[in-house]
Amino acid sequence: MEITEELRIKNHPILQEPEVQKEVTIFYNGEPVKAYEGEPISAALMAAGIRTFRRTVRRNEPRGVFCAIGRCTDCMMVVDGRPNTRTCMTMVQDGMRIEPQFGFGK
Amino acid sequence: MRKISTEVAVIGAGPAGLCAAIEAAKAGAQVMLFDENVLPGGQLFKQIHKFFGSKEHLAGIRGYEIGRQLLKEVEQSGAQVMLNSVAYGIFPGLSIGVVQGEHHYEVTAKKIILAAGGKENYMSFPGSTLPGVMGAGAAQTLINVNRVMPGKRVLMVGSGNVGLIVSYQLLQAGISVAAIVEGAPLIGGYGVHAGKIRRAGVPILVSHTIKEAYGKNAVEGVVIAALDEQWKIIPGSEQDMAVDTICLAVGLSPMTELAWMAGCEFIFIPALGGHVPMHDENMATTNPDLLVAGDVTGVEEASSAMEEGKLAGIAAAEALGYLDAGEAEKRKTEVRQRLSILRTGLFGEKRRSAKSSQIDAMKNYLKKNLPGGGM
């Protein structure tokens, strides 16, 4: 199955509408991605349908979000030039530049 | 490196750590609470279901509402909350290494309460490393905290309460759940949860497992298969399902790294998630200045984590002289009564006997290792 639409949840039966959050723009491989202040980078990328966050050093295999709470380190990317950044634990900032990480990153 | 000292240092601001900090600070102790996240609350804010138990256990209240309540209480208690702060080690002399952004601290404490929580287990199968395969708790964080869908159609692995509750919450978030597969011949969680799932039209396939997940750069589908009585795949029973996400709800393990590092003695109890630190009825480990609370002492759930946190907080305050023995005993007895009620019933009974074997192990250890100890 291919993901083509924005994966934001609207009209939840239990949770109220989230307080209006400021929209910011982050850049994934140079392309603008819509994000909201206070959310982790991983959530903004997943909402945009981006699932491969890094590739492994030996076999070049794709990896993405596994635990979403900072334990597994599968979501590490290069954020503003800094490799090995856990994107599920790092909140978005306007203008942030995110690149997929290859191997150990540099 | 900056040096800080405090009377009580609590590691982890989830339900157990928050309750420990609140109780110790309310009694008058100086408390610092450390958590690596930008917000306290641990995993409470993704729990949007109503809690079980009785009124004293906050039953009928949704997890995130309990979280908000605890944050208010911790603020009023006077405990100092240090966020973005990773406690990476416990060193001799009861000193904790903490990194906060670019800053490095050495925190010394008279008592440490370790409430590090648990982490989700992984399950290996061909394709299990593909993006789109994630913990059920990860999906729960995405939908309930971040309000983002992990995908459009999910296969859930595991029918314990986490698998059942998260499946239902995925449906509430507008995501379709293709099926729940369960390796055992019986559904693992409460019948009331399973009933809700089935009424929503989601099949729960017992004696079934994942054979493989496939996809080029992320999950595009999954092959499931039936298992025989020896848990071997029955040839020809394979079914192909188009899903973009696979959630693993195959248990949790205590995050005990810091307790190992501090030299605590452990006992292996599978019902509690594996190796867990021995502790006494005051939550003190074999290092009497290191207390533990919540999932790090053995995986249960948030309600008992909160009670264990209170117990550790009261015990730490008592040891520091902030509560006299009579008052402390009164408070601890109330908490222990609530804890024992939480550990009753079909699921609670197993945890009750596991927890008492953990406390018995501690008693035996003290008898063997301290002259005249354990009397």
Which word captures the global form of chain A? globular
Q: Specify the helix fraction band of chain B.
A: 25-40%
CA gyration radius of chain B, whole angstroms: 22 Å
CATH topology of the largest domain in chain B: FAD/NAD(P)-binding domain
Mean pLDDT across all amino acids of chain A: 91
Question: How is this structure best described in words?
Answer:
- The complex is a heterodimer of chains A (106) and B (375).
- Chain A is mainly β and 106 residues long.
- Chain A is built from one helix and eight strands; from the N terminus they run ββαββββββ.
- Chain A has one helix at 41-47, and strands at 23-28, 31-36, 54-55, 62-63, 76-79, 82-86, 97-99, 101-102.
- The mean pLDDT of chain A is 91.
- In chain B, strand 9 (153-157), helix 4 (161-172) and strand 10 form a beta-alpha-beta unit.
- The two termini of chain B are 43 Å apart.
- Chain B is 33% helix and 26% strand.
- Chain B folds into two domains: 2-119 and 252-369, 3-Layer(bba) Sandwich (FAD/NAD(P)-binding domain); 127-248, 3-Layer(bba) Sandwich (FAD/NAD(P)-binding domain).
- In chain B, helix 4 packs parallel to helix 5.
- Chain B has helices at 15-26, 63-77, 136-144, 161-172, 191-199, 257-261, 302-319, 325-342, 345-369; strands at 2-11, 31-34, 80-82, 85-91, 95-100, 103-114, 118-120, 133-135, 153-157, 176-182, 204-206, 208-214, 221-226, 239-241, 245-248, 252-254, 266-269, 274-277, 290-292.
- In chain B, the strands form five sheets. In chain B, strands 1, 2, 3, 4, 5, 6 and 19 form a seven-stranded mixed beta sheet that branches.
Q: What attributes does this structure have?
A:
heterodimer; A: 106 residues; mainly beta; Ubiquitin-like (UB roll); three-stranded mixed beta sheet; 1 helix; 28% strand; globular; B: 375 residues; alpha/beta; FAD/NAD(P)-binding domain; 2 domains; five-stranded parallel beta sheet
